[in-house]
Amino acid sequence: MLPQEGSSNPPSPLTDLHSRFRAPLHAFFLRRLNDPAAAEDLTQDAFVKLLAAAERDKVDDPGALLFTIAGGLLNDRYRMSRRRRDALLANVDTGPVSPVTLEFVETGDPERLVLARERIAAVTRALDELGERTRTIYVLFRLENMKQRDIAALFGVSKSTVEKEIVKAGLHLNKRLRALTR
After folding, report:
1. Is residue 163 classed as helix, strand or coil in its secondary structure?
2. What digits encode the pLDDT tens for the residues 22-71?
3. For the residues of 108-154, what is the DSSP string, one character each?
4. CA 14 from chain center: how many Å?
5. 3-state DSSP assignment of residue 156
6. What is the pTM (predicted TM-score) of this model?
7. What is the distance between the alpha carbons of residues 37 and 33, in angstroms, rounded to a whole number?
8. Using CA atoms, how far apart are residues 110 and 107, in angstroms rounded to an integer?
């Protein structure tokens, strides 16, 4: 039971957990969903599931369990939204467009999946060949969409240096990937 406001009871472990993890957990959901109401609902659901788990068994690391639960809740939400989308699309009559559209739809062809995985592995290996600073700058710019001036400020270098590092990494990746396709 949670203490009532104004009572002299010390905070319970649950109150402590809630005060420590509520904001980071809410931010975790908000970053992934970009929907404050859904993030709030999932935050509450995660705490309810944590409480239920704690009633069943001893929980050694409640913070880790809380974020594991959060990941599961996100997976459930994505699966449910995919099922809804598929159900809605299944009821749509595409008419004469369907045969043309099917030509451009990517299939889950096993050979293409293997080739894609090999290409991802090659990119990862090529990135690993770069120096740490070059790799980090490239990843921040290309994958995290960070602005060059912000990267420059983070590393304490000029924007020109950041641009050169990005070009250097891009040329290296291009060279390695071209060698892969030959």
Report:
1. helix
2. 998 898 899 888 899 999 999 999 999 998 988 898 888 888 888 899 98
3. --HHHHHHHHHHHHHHHHHHHHS-HHHHHHHHHHHTS---HHHHHHH
4. 27
5. coil
6. 0.45
7. 10
8. 9
